[in-house]
Structures are given as structure tokens and as C-alpha cells.
Amino acid sequence: MYQKLILLLSITILLTACATLPDNNNRQTSFAFTDTADTRLGQDIAGFEARYPGQDGFLLLVNGLDAFVARAGLTRAAERSLDVQYYLYHDDLVGRLFSALLWEAAERGVRVRLLVDDMDLANRDQEVLMFDAHPNIEVRIFNPFSRKVGRLPQYVSRFGSVTRRMHNKSFTADNAITIVGGRNIGDEYFDADPVLTFADLDIMAGGPVAAEVSASFDRYWNSKLAYPAATLIKAELSEAERLSIRDNMLAALQSEQASQYMQSLRDSDLAQSIRNAKIEFITGQATVVADDPDKILAARDEESLQLRSQLGPYFNQIESDLIVISPYFVPGKIGVEFFKSLVERGVRVRILTNSLASNDVSLVHVGYSRYRKALLRHGVELFELNNYQDLAVNRKRSRLGSSSQASLHAKTFILDQQRVFIGSLNLDPRSFLENTEIGLVIDSERLAKSMVLGMVDILEERTFKLNLETNPDGTENLRWQGYEEGRSVSYDKDPYTGFWERFWLGFFRLLPIESQL
Questions:
Q1: For residue 159, what are the CA distances in angstroms to 152, 232, 456?
Q2: For a Cys staple, 117 with which of 166, 272, 359, 455, CB 3.0–4.6 Å?
Q3: Quick one: pLDDT band at residue 404, thresholds 50, 70, 90?
């Protein structure tokens, strides 16, 4: 036994030595352009600010097609710069479309800075190098894995380091208009995946807040954790390889699968409003809240670097009403006590999260499920996504081999129907302590109330409301109340799940894994 332990320790030390990263001290700093007032987007925002001094403008992006058109339209309208920051950037239809559009922008002289977390870049170094080789494009990779050894061993040798990721999502054109929210770049976030569709939410924002998002981007871009692609990846591409990868990327623009997206980019009202600099914004004022990139390197109790310390005052000011939408919701004991304190002072608290059946990361449901009864006891209203409609469609399509699973992915809070948070933050330990996040806190009664109206419809039609029933012997049981095809239904177990799903849920609840959820 002792010899095996020594061998394991030796292997771990060897892997740690092999997984070293190159020196990153010679990276060049760069910052967002500030002289963009004469661009088309800059002039649009200047006109807006002249009409509404001191205000920001907002446009909700609810469905995937609009979310695509907004980013694509801004990419084609940009004249000076595009600053793009994402956690996941898939090599799929939507990923290739965005890459092709960014390439087109670079070809006409736009500076493109692409900052991507390394979690989604396994086996894609050639693609990264092709992109980075363009004179107007620079790619940086955040908190990268070493290229000297495989990724799996690094999860062992660098656990607690590579398991902390940049979860931020922002897209800013000409330092004038920005998009922040829950969407990564990939088919499932833009309604293009036949297997999984995320119900997600972004906000397009113009005005002073765009410069705040740019400032946050610059902090990450210039961080010692952001490695230029050429520094990290030592491989070389032949000219034939480079052209082949480029042509495959550009071919996506002409593909039959992309026709709906490209047609919307040409003809939709949103696309035309961006082209004609006539975006109809809702007015308000926004503040950017974001983790410091050094959070990844700091102790988990270093609250001064964490977004949650910036959000705290807003939550403490709540007087009457709070709606929370979080796909991955793990409140912990501290969160339960906080929500309890809100209810005790007269605040109505409603929380919408994924059901076990709709959660794309079932393990996260473990951390949430152990707190359901406590939250309900304290008067919190719990709702879980009811994906009956999707399951019914799947059953009809199953013989054709086609199905689609809906899952909640939006991250937003509505405070007192006056103030809104939209961003990348989930209410779970991973978002609070492990990963970095960004979001906007928006003071706009019009925006908040319109979102509340939309949420009321969703809560009534597309969710199960959880209730806690006390039996004569004093035991408590959960009950799910919802609708299927207009009929009221009730379940005493997680709806649309089987025995083994619930068995594994109960098993993993016994393990001390909550900090990683």
C-alpha cells in the first residue's frame, strides 16, 4: 500500500512538471478604442445620448434567432473594433458562422480581439492558429491547459487551477454597443441544435455602459492568465492547411443549414434597425458588475475580487419582490438563510430553475434538491421548468430519429419590478467562488415590468410549482403542480424521470461535491 502511494505521488509530481505553461510576460497590452464616435454605431449611440442624456439603451434578446442577428448585425456594422469574450465557442454551425463573420470584418480592416476560455478548445489548435494568423485578429486563451501533456492528467495535477474557468460572455462593437447575457457561441444557444435547445437571455446595450464592458474586457485581455495563441501553441500550419481551414469556415455562410440565419440577417426588422442605425432602445441606467480576473488565482474567500460583493447591496435593498431565474441553482445553507430573511421582512421570493428532467447537467440538481424543502418551509416559491411540450413532441418524432430537449439557461434577477440583473452568473458555488462572471444591473422600471409580465406567463404555463405537504405522521413530501395540454396535473416525484435517475440523484447527494457544482 505504501509503495502504491509513493508511485501515485511520483506520477502526480511528474505530470505537474510536464504541464508547465510558457512564459507569458512578453504579451502586448492593448485597450478598447475610444475614438469611435464617427463610426455608424458610434453615431447611432451619440444620437441616442443626445435625446436621453445620461441614459443607456437596452434591447432584450429572448429568442435564439434574434440573438444571432444582433451579434451578426453588429459584426457587419462594426468599422473599428470587435471585442469578443466567451466561455464556450463551439466548432459547429453557429460557431463557424460567427467565425466567418468575424473574419469578414477583419478583412475590411476591423480589429478583432477574441478572448476564449480554454475549456472548449481541445484539439482545435490548428483552427485557433489559422484565425490568429490574420493581421487584424488576435486570439488569446484564458487560463489554458498545457499543450505538453493531455488534459485529463491535468485535471489531477492541476485540480483547483484548471477547474476554475472564465465563464464571462460579452460582445462589443466599436466600443458603442455591447451584448451581455447567458449565451455562449454554439448551436444550442441559438436554436440550431436538433437535440438540445437552451431557453436563454441576453441584453443588447448602448451608451456609457458599453465602455464599462470594454473596460472589463481589457482587464481580462491584459491579464497574465490570458495567453496569446502564438505564445501558447508552438505548432505551425502549412499554407495548404491554413487555406483549407479558412475555406471550410467561410463555406458555412453559404450552407443550406445557415439559410434561415443568413436570411434573417438580411431581412429581419432587427437586422435592418442595426444597419440603418435606428435601434429602438428602452432607456435606463446600467452598472457593470464583474469578477476580477485575478479571482482565478486568489483564495476563495477573497471577496474583494468577486462579483457577489458588488451584487450584495442591490439584494439588501429589496423591499417587496424578487424573481430569480437560474438554471443551476445551489443556494447552500447561507443562501437559504438569506432568502428566509427576505420573506420574513415581507419580500415575495419566486425562484425558477431547471427540473431534473430538463437540467442538462443533472449533477447540479443534486446540490439544489437537498434545499428544496427548507426553502419551501421558509415561504420561498419554487418553480421548475416543465418540459412536457418538448417531451410530447419528442415522442411523436422519435420514429423519425429527431428530438429536441429544452433546458433553461437564462440567468436573470428582477428586483422590486424596478431593477434587473442579466449576465452569466448562476446562483451556485461554482459561479460565486470558482469561475469568473459578468453582468449588468439595470435600473429601468419599464424593462423590469415587461420582464415580470413575461415571467408570469412562463410561471403559469411552462413550470411546475412545488408544494410541501405534511403527512399525519409529520413527514414532509414534495408535490409538483403543473399543466399538460391544458389539464392540471400533480406529481409526487420529479416529473418525467425514471427510477434510476432519482436513484443516482439520491446517491450523489451523499457525496461532498457541492463546492464544485
A1: 10, 20, 42
A2: 166
A3: very low
Using the 3D structure, point to which of 275, 300, 315 is the last residue of a domain. Answer: 275
Which residues participate in catalysis according to the annotation? 167, 169, 174, 409, 411, 416
Query: What pLDDT is recorded for position 8?
Result: 46
pTM: 0.93
d(CA 453, CA 513): 37
> 3-state class of 369 per DSSP?
helix
Same domain, 308 and 409: yes
- Could you list the residue range(s) of the whole structural domain that residue 453 is in? 291-516
Q: What is the pLDDT of residues 65-91, one digit of tens each?
A: 999 999 999 999 999 999 999 999 999
Query: 314 and 257 in one domain?
Result: no
pLDDT at 252 over 80: yes
CB 492 within 8 A of CB 477: yes
pLDDT tens readout for residues 33-64: 999 999 999 999 999 999 999 999 999 999 99
The whole-angstrom separation of Cα 86 and Cα 64 is 17
Task: Read off the pLDDT of each residue in 159-178 and give the average, rounded to a whole number.
Answer: 96
Enumerate the β-bridge partners of residue 490. Answer: 481
CATH number for the domain spanning 374: value is: 3.30.870.10
463 versus 395: the higher-pLDDT residue is: 463
343 vs 452: CA distance, rounded Å: 19
Domain count, the chain: 2
The answer to whether residue 137 sits within a structural domain is yes
- Give every CB contact of residue 254 below 8 A, 6+ residues apart in sequence: none
Distance in angstroms between the alpha carbons of the first and the last residue of the chain? 32
Residue ranges with strand state E in 445-486: 463-470, 476-484
